Amino acid sequence: MEQGGGEIMVVGQSNVVSSDIQVSQPASVYIDTCSLINLLTGPKANFLIANLEFWILNNKIQLFTCKVIVEEWNIQKEKHRDAFRQSLQAKYSHTHEVAKIENLTVPKNLQPNTEVYDKLIGRIDDLLKGAVLLEVTKDAKARGAERFVVPRKAPFHNKADSMNDAFIIFTALEYFHRLNQSFIFISDNKGEFASVDDKERRIHPELIEDFPGVEVEYYRDIGWAISDLRKRLGISLTQEESAVTIEVKEPLIKISLDRSQHLLDQLAQYMHIMHQDIVYVPPMFIVNQYPFRIGNQHSSGYGHFNAETSNEKLLDLFVQLSVDQDGAPLPHALQDVFPEVVDAVGKSKEVLRLLTRDLIFSISNNRGGKRISTRFTGDRNTCHCPICEFRRFNFVDALKQLADEPVNEQQYLQLAYANYLCGNYMAATRILQRALPLLKDKNLNTSAFISEFNLSKLGIFLFNSYFKDKDIEQLANLLMAINPAERMPNYAAPHNREVLEYLSEDNFLKSTKEKAHELHYKLLDNYFHSLSGGFSSNTYVWSLINQLAQIDSFLTDNRIIFNKFNEFSNLADRIFEAMFASHAVKAESGSRLVSFDDWILQRMMLYGTAENLNKYYLRYKIKKLAYEREDDQEGTFVDSLNNFFSGVRELSKAVRKYCELDGDSFWDYYNRLFSNAIVLISITQISPPTLMALIGKVIDFLESEDCIDAENLKRVRSLIVRVGMDLDIELLNRAMWVFVQNRKYLKTGCVESICEIYSTRKLKLSVRDAQLDFIKHAYTKVDAGGILQLHSPLIQICRIVQEESVAQELKAIIRNNLHANFRFEIYYESVIFGIIPYDDSDFEKLLASVLPSAGRQEIKGFLLGRPSDRYDGVNHLLNLVFKIGLDTNAARFDVIRKLSPYYEWLLNMEEFDYGNFDPAWISEYKTRYYFRRIASCTKVREYLESQLKDEVISDLEKQYYSIYIRKPWDVREE
Q: At how many degrees (to 10) do helices 598-607 and 540-557 cross?
């Protein structure tokens, strides 16, 4: 069969297994349909398939399949082939559109080429053709039927539609049970097959309860399974290797330990050596040698905050330490458990503390067995160093410590990094230059190398920040000439070589980007799959969180200065988007990120961008981010917000005193944090009392701040819109006067939005004489020609003031302004909000103000995806016309009628030819007056009902429900 063509047929009996066939040496691998699809669509498809082909060729594995899997695959592969072709077609169509706009030359006959995808399908077809084919037995069918009956048992415990899943698993279990053999089962359907306790690596116990003697090694992720097989089989294929046998050697022992000592002593010594002058060691380096790894029989690994080990004695040791899931303190009787170990309690605490710091929260054997908790929070003390205070947003306390004189090597490194965080690049450089010889003298090689690495990065900051200082420019050039990769051999030793290579070659970023991009793709695919009723598997999100935690700890805990901000920001944005997508999956569709904890929200504030956080919130249509607050912990997300919005005046003084370059770098960072904080408060589900207290803090901050620029203050409007309906009147009034009194809010829309909240809640704003003077001063101005100009917020305030005398005075200002200098937008808002009455004698002026000039097209509308024959001014005028109830059949509207069929329909819906109707017109301009006019037309309703009668059209259904059932237009006039 040619690659990419034909069906996998289930007619040949040569592959059908009888009960007397014996399988010996090769590992038995059984792959479910969903994992075959993952194998096809994943970013490493070629690489993963190549390994399976290589192992089969070298008799290292034997693939098994069954009739149900083959039939499902034959259906699904064609669906994915079509989806791939359609996706390419959409991209090519977009390419043509861009080419037209940019005047680029692109072949007109550009068509999707699915050859690569077809070849992948063909290779998986060949894998299945060579697999041992199991027939679904009567017993397997009977077991499925029995378990479907209530109370349902796995695989029906989560959903009833799992009969094929039952056939798949019980066919294999019965076959291998007859042979008394174990097998590897790979399926992404964890909801049906995985244990509740470990959805990544354990089969659900109900599935195997009737099959004693059969060990099922379960993997949810096929990439993980193949990665483990690469380590365990002793033979593997990489992109550079050909299909030859590879000699597997014992890994180099990098650290010599006295194995005659107790294992706890060995472990304590090992952890001390690995951390002798570095705070955080990436766990992949921790687990890659003894005592975690023994020999070459099995490798060790790390994932999901869990270390896998091949050392069973090490597992037994952690069982004896008895650390529970909450990180409770160790028992005082621990010394009795290890009488031969000097200070067993102290060594145990130190080992657990370092493992927890390295993000190793549990340990299991590499066969997927029980996990033993290692997370230790006992004896935890809050650190008040300048870096920790900075990260908790206690900026004043952090800045004050910058003046301290360091007394040891660690304080040198702390102060250098803290100065870098605050934008004091010259101070950070001088401190590291003083620290480097001290570190070398004491053979603190890892810290010395990190210091040289940091100096090379500080050179970039110096060069870009101190433009007029020739001496600093010369210093910057010297520092930028430092090549960390060339310096690395001077500091490398057996215990730190991998860490130094990881840093010097930027592998910490490269590896995280590669894994995060793959997981981002899978999580978004899960989300869109769930929208069409598919079952979502979102445990990938914890792998993603683990990736973020590793790079965050590596950079921050080890005081590493990093300059590739755009790459890191893009990486963080991808991770956060995937979290939003996972959270947006409906609970009934499968596993998901149920809530955001303090750590995640704090990282979003530190590393996110307000624009993207807000975009993902809207894109995935989340009502609020569920927040799981750890009230028993210090430094919660709410604590961080309270710290940030406190003491801004004291902070300004501290910045002037302790920061270089007038604090420009610090204030840039501070403004970004402000925007992130405002967005996160507005989209996170915080308890009402806590939220009100936070809003009070924000308003206090806004009343006194002088450091946030107008662009970032625009974020405040979203906060007011999202929480304003729940604010008490005192907070609402305070917020209003903050916005009125500060001209930075003039073009933010804050006043308009808060006035809308007053109006919706039927509240009135009390305005005293002094406040009225301030309003007039803020929103009116006499121009160079002596004409009084006014700003839109004045109209909004006029509609909500409590005192009639104030309202009349503001109305007089508006009328006088229109008389002297007619402006459509002022007239329009004044009439729409009932400030002045409509005068039909003004119609010609209104019409002349909004009609496009001859031949004019709204190019901005075209670029934004709107039709080119739409005009905002015309739309606003018709909104006013619909409110007033003018006769749109009159001849004076003919000039608008001729603009496009859209306006022809709007002006006479009953007589319009609905053969030329576009349903998208209904929701193009969303106001109560448009919807009220549409709802009054029987022809529109008849059209919608005719379209929905025989076909489900989701967008039309939403419009029909909104206009005729929910009736958002049916509200009492103001």
A: 60
625: number of CA atoms within 13 Å, CB side?
A: 27
What whole-number distance in Å separates Cα of residue 641 and Cα of residue 626?
17
- pTM of the entire structure? 0.73
Q: What is the mean pLDDT of the chain?
A: 85
Residue 322 has pLDDT above 80, yes or no: no
Q: Specify the amino acid at residue 415.
A: L
Cβ atoms within 10 Å, residue 732: 21
Tokens at 300, concatenated = 């060790």
The two counts, helices (H) then strands (E), for the chain are 47, 14
Q: In angstroms, rounded to a whole number, what is the distance separating the alpha carbons of residues 914 and 916?
A: 5
**Three-state DSSP class for residue 223:** helix
Residue partners of 622: CB distance under 8 A and separation at least 6: 580, 583, 584, 683
Q: How far apart are CA 670 and CA 395, in angstroms?
A: 10
Dist CA 167 CA 155 (whole Å): 10
**What are the structure tokens assigned to 659, written together?**
């920061």
One-letter-per-residue 3-state SS of 401-419? HHHCCCCCHHHHHHHHHHH
Q: Please report the pLDDT score of residue 864 as a whole number.
A: 46
The string of DSSP letters for 737-799 reads HHHHH-GGGTTTSHHHHHHHHHHHTT--B---HHHHHHHHHHHEEE-TTSPEEE-THHHHHHT
Place of tokens 């009392």: 689
- Contact, 871 vs 877, CB < 8 A? no
Residues in the chain: 974
3-state secondary structure of 120: helix
CA 858, 929, 964: angle at the middle one, nearest 5?
115
Q: Report the phi/psi class of residue 635: left, alpha or beta, with left for phi > 0 and alpha for psi in -120 to 50.
A: left
* Distance set, CA 86 to CA 72, 80, 481 (Å): 21, 10, 50
* Structure tokens, 943: 């059209």
CB 313 within 8 A of CB 263: yes
- Give SS3 for 307: strand
% of the chain surpassing 90 pLDDT: 48
Give the C-alpha separation, 276 to 288, whole Å.
Answer: 18
CA distance 763 to 799: 11
Q: For residues 209 and 143, is the Cβ–Cβ distance under 8 A?
A: no
Average pLDDT over residues 721-731: 93
- Please give the Cα distance from 529 to 537 (Å, whole number): 10
pLDDT at 120 over 90: no
What is the DSSP code (8-state) at residue 226? H
